[in-house]
């Protein structure tokens, strides 16, 4: 497969590893509990907590404000530590806690929203970079494009469901729906952890172990390139420049 061979690139999408589809599933079922929640939350804050429309609106912005401030720092911390699957599982569990506090407990919504803001920022820092560890660099645009497409398809479908649940049963059942969606994301993350361990993938390595393994892969690639270039010189074949880490 080469960059000059777009048909080859498209065909290789079929060979994306199962871990990537797990990442896509987590992306759909996690974000369903965040974006549609925020879209519908203003009236929830007004009715359950008796907040004024202005305060309800301010609460609604809190998750995104927190992400705007925290994401670079949390991204740096995840880069320094590695162990992306642990961060991912922790952030999904914290989001479940935030929704459970909103559904079952009567404390000021700022508490669950702060938890959600931190968890949402950690999830972005740990989930999205995984794609780069799973597919060859020539296919990153395709892999992220597919992730964005699947996420938006999921959100489009689930938005219809959340609207129906809200209109027919109210906010309590909507919160239960979000918690169930997050539990599916948690199951997918557990499957990702198991699959990654079985396959010896790099997703949950510490940064130092990951660095050593990537160096090994690169040095193997360099030596295979020098072998290939010798062969190329002899028989005029092209070298395979794939970068797949997990199969
Ligand atoms: C990083 C992640 N981005 C997305 O989910 C985008 N597809 C859509 C962004 C919409 C505004 N938050 C995120 O936002 O956490």
UniProtKB/TrEMBL annotation:
Keywords: Lysosome, Membrane, Transmembrane, Transmembrane helix, Transport. Coiled coil: none annotated. Belongs to the major facilitator superfamily. Lysosomal dipeptide uniporter that selectively exports lysine, arginine or histidine-containing dipeptides with a net positive charge from the lysosome lumen into the cytosol. Could play a role in a specific type of protein O-glycosylation indirectly regulating macrophages migration and tissue invasion. Also essential for liver homeostasis. Pfam families: MFS_1. PROSITE patterns: MFS. This is Lysosomal dipeptide transporter MFSD1. One of its GO terms (cellular component) is lysosomal membrane. Residues 1-199 form the Major facilitator superfamily (MFS) profile domain. It comes from Didymodactylos carnosus. It is a multi-pass membrane protein. The chain crosses the membrane at residues 21-41, 61-78, 85-107, 113-134, 146-166, 172-195. It comes from the Eukaryota. InterPro entries: MFS, MFS_dom, MFS_trans_sf, MFSD1. Its main location: membrane. It is found in: Lysosome membrane. GO terms for molecular function: transmembrane transporter activity. Signal peptide: none annotated. It catalyses: L-arginyl-L-alpha-amino acid(out) = L-arginyl-L-alpha-amino acid(in); L-lysyl-L-alpha-amino acid(out) = L-lysyl-L-alpha-amino acid(in); L-aspartyl-L-lysine(out) = L-aspartyl-L-lysine(in); L-lysyl-glycine(out) = L-lysyl-glycine(in). PANTHER family: MAJOR FACILITATOR SUPERFAMILY DOMAIN-CONTAINING PROTEIN 1. Homodimer. Interacts with lysosomal protein GLMP (via lumenal domain); the interaction starts while both proteins are still in the endoplasmic reticulum and is required for stabilization of MFSD1 in lysosomes but has no direct effect on its targeting to lysosomes or transporter activity. The keyword Transmembrane helix applies.
